[in-house]
Specification:
Length: about 450
Amino acid sequence: MTEEATIKPVLAVVGRPNVGKSTLVNRILGRREAVVQDTPGVTRDRVSYDANWNGREFVIVDTGGWISDAKGMAQQIAEQAELAIGAADAVLFVVDATVGTLDEDEAVVKVLRRSKKPVILAANKVDDQRHEAMAATMWNLGLGEPHPVSAMHGRGSGDLLDAILNALPEAPPEHYEEVGGPRRVAIIGKPNVGKSSLLNKLARQQRVVVSDISGTTVDPVDEIVEIGGQVYRLIDTAGIRKRVKEASGHEYYASLRTQTAIERAEACVVVIDASAPITDQDLRILTNVEETGRALVIAFNKWDLTDEERRRYLDREIERDLVAFGWAPTVNISALTGRNVDKLSKAIEAAAAGWETRIPTGKLNAFLGRLAAAHPHPVRGGKQPRILFGTQAQACPPTFALFTSGQFDATYVRFIERRLREDFGFVGSPVHIEIRAREKHKNRG
């Protein structure tokens, strides 16, 4: 499944003040989230929430009302609506059936038509049958069938939600691999760092009888072991069994096997030889784990072979070469003597918890709002790109889609990642951020 496919569909809610947008948003969410005075969020009062109907998940962006202002009113409306509409998959346009259509409504209709996005028209405040006829007058907006609804009493909300789901693209089902059984861990590293010694240490001394674990399918080269009282399935651990040694010198096949192990694992323990300088090959393996999106623990092996001078050098190498992996827990071990091998379990569990972290959309957007207010994106070419709203597309690893009014500098994206880690942790896990810049409308009317 591509990352593109993992983003939940987005519904923008637009409409004048006092048409009952917030009440309708609460009705759709099935809980009181949107208050009439929404706390100013990312851009003015655009607020995002996670919603679910009939088992399908989507994100609601409540754009807030706009203030009627004789001077530049149409421009204000267009800006507010266009930003939300540009980033959305479909638009819920809320009008007040008891008032009928006003000039502001007509201004938004122009924007909606130009966007070519699917529009669901909700004629709100239809509290009883007498108001049904009023809703029918909304056909004149030219946006298709008006859906009579009472946000206050819930009347017609089920039919409206069905219409919303029809307009939104299909949300991907949550994707879980090999659910159940012990956590899958790959122990990887370049040749001669002591992987085999570590694997054999774990397998010989802390072997768990496979039949004790119910519902576990073990691949021929997997091993069920216990580390620090926790049971794990070690991935692609062919080195444990006394096999005929594969022909040496086939680095291609070795890297292929490593890649397969990374992809099958939930967490990777990358073994680095502490007694020798950190190499480019070590960094390539670490980068590979990060790009594949797996939880990461770094194990500095052969600690028994390091003296004080070597440890000083190692500290400097870590500061210089491993600064990009500062988020990964590290353990100093000796596979030969068994030193600290049990501590790997605590590090693996911390990394796995960071990997599985999920941030609610409302909380994420409150964070993004504070961040953008304190540290806005630098102005580029006379324009300042802004975050419209963000959503966590998936966990494992935490992946965020930020909908923006323009492209972001790579340095600013790294800054966002750093601040996300400061606020929410994500220990031991890569954090992937995808910028979705709003498409520019070529023919603005």
